[in-house]
Amino acid sequence: MALYTMKELLQDAQQKKYGIGFFDTFNTDMVQAVIRAAEDCNSPVIIGTAEALLKYCPFEVIMPAMLEAARQAKVPVAVHLDHGYSYDVVMQALRWGCGSVMYDGTREKDHADNVRISAQLARICHAMGVGLECELGSVGGLSDETGKEDQTAYTDPEDARRFIEQTGADFLAVSIGTQHGVYKAEPKLDLNRLAEIHAAVDVPLVLHGGSGLSDDDFRNTIAGGIRKINVFTDVILAAKEIIHADANEAYADAMLRAQDAMKEATAVKLRLFGSAGRG
Q1: 12 is catalytic
Q2: CA–CA gap between residue 82 and residue 229 (Å, rounded)
Q3: DSSP code of 153?
Q4: Contact, 270 vs 234, CB < 8 A?
Q5: What is the pLDDT of residues 187-204, one digit of tens each?
Q6: Pick the catalytic residue: 12, 24, 29, 82?
Q7: Rounded to whole angstroms, how far apart are CA atoms 257 and 184?
Q8: Which of 47, 229, 252, 263 minimizes the number of CB atoms within 10 Å of its CB?
Q9: Across-strand partners of 77?
Q10: Residues 6+ apart with CB under 8 A from 96
């Protein structure tokens, strides 16, 4: 299969009302695990990295690996930047060949800055044939470079409508009660809010904080208009369990078994999201 853009993949998901998984990666084991899962499920998939993960593997290492793996895959694969907080990092992702990027302006000092920078980046991305994802509201759980944790702020439907009109963003990440990382309590999703956002905007909606949700949560959010679901923690926890299981196991063997575990954790999500069989 040829390398696809996220916009191409999500257009089909939007029309046929299913979800596509996005999986952050920071080494080739993770890249291989996700693509193996997608091939086994005959599913389109989105892989990528995030600004916070570049300390583990910089663009110049991970991007060529992701792009080549995507080109060689037997299913459609898109490569995406997740949670780019700075203009410079988003520009680097574009130079390295990401077919879509996320600018997360929720940490800007005020909403006007988020709108202004998002609109500027949308113009640049569109001139390059690249899609732009933005976030409105805030999905809590991530920490900035000072250690300050993002707090949850729910997305307002009317604000979402204005934001898309003002910026021209192609995809919108919404906050409806999910959280990044491991949940400290059972999540309670605001599905009514999601329905109002879905009615207010005509771009594919994105759900961050997918790890830890129930199967019904996923089904309900996809039915409510979510088309891209971000998953990271569930996949790395599967690898972590394998790596810690046997302290005497050779590192290389543990990595192979961890890759298999990540593949299976990914496949579970692809089948649940409804993308299996659509590759």
Answers
A1: no
A2: 12
A3: B
A4: no
A5: 778 999 999 999 999 999
A6: 82
A7: 28
A8: 252
A9: 3, 45
A10: 59, 60, 63
